[in-house]
From TrEMBL:
Stored SUPFAM superfamilies: ClpP/crotonase (SSF52096)
Repeat as UniProt keyword: no
InterPro entries attached to this UniProt entry: ClpP, ClpP/crotonase-like_dom_sf, Pept_S49_SppA, Peptidase_S49, S49_SppA_C
Keyword Thylakoid part of the UniProt annotation: no
EC number(s) given by UniProt: 3.4.21.-
Xref: PANTHER family: PEPTIDASE S49, SIGNAL PEPTIDE PEPTIDASE SPPA-RELATED
Class in the EC hierarchy, top level: hydrolase
Family: Belongs to the peptidase S49 family.
GO biological process: proteolysis
Origin species: Geomicrobium sediminis
Protein's recorded name: Protease-4
Gene3D superfamilies documented for this protein: 2-enoyl-CoA Hydratase, Chain A, domain 1
Keywords for the protein's UniProt record, in alphabetical order: Hydrolase, Protease, Serine protease
GO MF: peptidase activity
């Protein structure tokens, strides 16, 4: 056999090997491992952070924008916020009779009105129906929807430099009507009603449309302030003064009665144990599969890319859709 044929065979073998490898990794990535393994009755696992002698505290992370973008599924779904899995974690922890308290570790700029309200209601249900203490530990940011879900907590802590507050509602869109006109671009719309294309990016908004949207924002803003009034035992006038969309550091939030103490996650867990009078086993609920350093690195990289692409898709497809948000936007 000639040298050229040996080289051709070697190249063919390499191509075949690489192709098989890509197929293998693709199959792994798209597999929903919760169907193959029992992940504590849900699409997540539990890992013990600290072993105690009595009681149990569940720690749940809320990291990323609070939006329901559908289940990611698969091995590489560990990056970013998954609303369905987070709600599942809250439900499992609340209904578990061995769990004495839940600590939510929050790091978010906020997100959707509906999703934030769903988390808020699940927290209140854990407190009232299952008599489970719920604490919130704020990370670098817990703004807008992040504060909305924290308000009903039995105890809220933050770092001195945490960015929180931004109590308010926002709805925005991009309008390029003048640019379209300048470039001779027209947008033809056939609609069933006067307001069907409200917030269209290709025409100016009318005063009537603006008032309709303002009424919606005001309605949700009233709900937000009521949540803070009830959760923080503040007067309506006090909350109104703090609810102009402004941000607060952790120190400022403490001064204004928006949080209860300064400290990190460990401080919050210790505070819960002290208040409950227990030496608890601390269990971390996570959808990170933790499959070893090499696999973990690959999973983290691919998950990060997947989340970025998903957020970009959301931005492109929904940026002009009227959507009420409890969200801090810089």
């Amino acid at each position: 056999m000639t040298v050229k044929r040996w080289i051709a065979l070697a190249v063919a073998a390499i191509v075949l090997f690489v192709s098989a490898g890509f197929q293998f990794f693709s199959a792994i990535a798209s597999t929903n491992f919760s169907d193959m393994f029992d992940l504590d009755g849900g699409d997540f696992r539990q890992e013990i952070l600290e072993t105690g002698t009595d009681g149990q505290i569940a720690v749940i992370d809320l990291d990323g924008m609070i939006m329901d973008t559908g289940s990611q599924g698969g091995l590489f779904a560990g990056g970013g916020y998954d609303h369905r899995v987070f709600m599942q974690m809250l439900e499992v922890a609340a209904e578990d009779a061995s769990v004495d308290g839940i600590v939510i570790n929050v790091n978010t700029p906020g997100g959707g009105v509906v999703e934030s309200a769903a988390i808020h209601d699940r927290i209140v249900r854990a407190q009232e129906e299952f008599d489970t203490e719920v604490y919130v530990s704020m990370g670098s940011m817990a703004a807008s929807g992040g504060y909305y879900i924290a308000a009903p907590a039995d105890y809220i802590s933050a770092h001195s430099g945490t960015i929180t507050g931004s109590i308010g509602v926002i709805m925005d869109s991009i309008n390029f009507a003048e640019l379209a006109e300048e470039w001779g671009i027209s947008h033809n719309v056939i609609k069933s009603g006067e307001y069907k294309d409200i917030m269209s990016p290709t025409r100016e908004m009318t005063s009537e449309e603006e008032q309709l949207l303002q009424d919606m924002v005001d309605d949700m803003f009233e709900e937000f302030t009521e949540v803070v009034v009830n959760g923080r035992d503040l007067s309506e006038s006090e909350v109104q003064e703090l609810a102009q969309g402004q941000l607060f550091t952790g120190n400022q939030a403490l001064e204004n009665g928006l949080i209860d103490g300064i400290g990190d996650l460990e401080h919050t867990i210790d505070h819960m144990q002290e208040n409950l009078g227990i030496n608890a086993t601390v269990v971390h609920y996570t959808n990170d599969f933790g499959v070893g350093s090499i696999w973990g690195l690959a999973a983290e990289t691919l998950a990060s890319e997947r989340v970025t692409m998903n957020q970009l898709e959301q931005l492109i497809t929904h940026s002009n859709a009227p959507r009420l948000m409890y969200l801090y936007q810089d």
